[in-house]
Specification:
This protein has about 230 residues and is of the alpha/beta class. The protein contains 6 helices and 7 strands.
């Protein structure tokens, strides 16, 4: 069977672009997202690129759904990679009014990352495969009104770095990807030139390269910034 990647957040943006890029290299794609119609579009693009694929809709904030996603992915004959793009963004001042939103963010960003990784780790270890986590500069910086988001990204990055030390002797690679302005619908273009942002094809090419390297080499971190400022 073809090499297989589980890609979360594959219904759009970086996740979809990575699915298409790996599919063009003959991979089988297990696409996760929340919207069934968007996932169906992703699989159509995967097949058009020359790969094969299936999709599974699940909420990252629901640990039962996360376990069901993992069980579905593990039904595949092999699992060579997990590319984790799904996340929740939270913005606002520190306040007791935001406890519910913070708890949701903790589940969707951190708890889901940790649990999904643990569920699929034995299969990825057997394949001597790779994990890729899309993170960002909030994993080492502190931004105003981003306290919880920064805390979660710091924790996610710490988890990935420690995971690499746990599995490196098993031939499993772990890569953190820190994108700058990427041209996705989620990024506001107010006062910005989209043509100067990082394009999806550019970041997906690097992710695929990290996934497909021989496992005597690991790209532990990739930081991408636009060559020219997109600010007008």
């Amino acid at each position: 069977m073809a090499e297989t990647a589980l890609i979360t957040g594959a219904s759009s943006g970086i996740g979809r672009a990575t699915a298409i890029d790996l599919a063009s290299k003959g991979w089988n794609i297990l696409a996760h997202g929340r919207r069934e119609d968007a996932l169906q579009e992703t699989i159509a693009m995967v097949e058009a690129a020359g790969g094969t694929g299936e999709w599974f809709a699940a909420e990252m904030g629901d640990m039962t759904s996360v376990a069901a996603l993992a069980d579905w992915a593990l039904q595949s004959e092999r699992l060579d990679a997990m590319v984790h793009c799904a996340a929740k963004f939270t913005y606002g001042a520190v306040s007791t009014d935001r406890f519910a939103d913070w708890d949701t963010s903790i589940d969707q960003v951190l708890r889901a990352t940790i649990r999904l990784t643990a569920h699929v780790l034995p299969a990825v270890r057997e394949a001597e495969g790779a994990f890729v986590y899309i993170c960002g500069p909030t994993s080492w910086l502190g931004w105003k009104n981003h306290a919880i988001h920064c805390a979660l990204r710091h924790a996610q990055a710490g988890f990935a770095k420690a995971l690499f030390e746990d599995v490196r002797e098993d031939g499993v690679r772990v890569t953190l990807v820190h994108p700058g302005f990427v041209n996705t619908p989620d990024v506001s273009d107010a006062g910005k030139d989209r043509s100067k942002m990082i394009q999806l094809e550019e970041i997906s090419t690097l992710i695929s390269t990290a996934v497909m390297l021989p496992n005597n080499t690991c790209v532990t971190e990739l930081t991408l910034r636009p060559q020219r400022t997109p600010y007008l």
